Amino acid sequence: MSAVKRGRTAPKLNRVCLLCGIVQSLSQFRNEGCPNCESVLHFQDNDDVIRECASPTFEGLVAVRGSSESWVAKWLRIENFVPGFYAVRVSGKLPDDIKNDLYAQGIEYRPRDGSVQD
């Protein structure tokens, strides 16, 4: 009879972009970047950015087929993003230096953790 090792859980391989909320595997972020935010966050081949700007902790999952008519996509503010799976709520916020860079580029950052109410 073999013993089962306990105490260490497997790492979560899915991550969520803290800017747009898309859910992808760690390898997708590393190899392809974020399909919505790559031009501003530069995930591709950058483990530091993936660690700082993509959270492994999220709640809910929504599949978006690309229709700008979707009320769920409008509610989540993802109606102009690529089709894919998006988190409803994401734990974590972008670091201040990245928020400042986004602001300088005219990009509004709204945390996806539920802390901002309309």
Automatic annotation (TrEMBL):
Any one GO molecular-function label of the UniProt entry: RNA polymerase II complex binding
Source organism of this protein record: Pichia inconspicua
rRNA-binding is among the record's keywords: no
Family according to the record: Belongs to the SPT4 family.
Biological process annotations from GO: regulation of DNA-templated transcription; transcription elongation-coupled chromatin remodeling
Spt4/RpoE2 zinc finger domain span: 14-91
Keywords recorded for this protein, A-Z: Centromere, Nucleus, Transcription
UniProt entry tagged with the keyword Transcription: yes
Function description: The SPT4-SPT5 complex mediates both activation and inhibition of transcription elongation, and plays a role in pre-mRNA processing. This complex seems to be important for the stability of the RNA polymerase II elongation machinery on the chromatin template but not for the inherent ability of this machinery to translocate down the gene.
One Pfam family, short name: Spt4
Compartment list: Chromosome, Centromere; Nucleus
Protein name stated in the entry: Transcription elongation factor SPT4
GO CC annotations, alphabetized: chromosome, centromeric region; DSIF complex
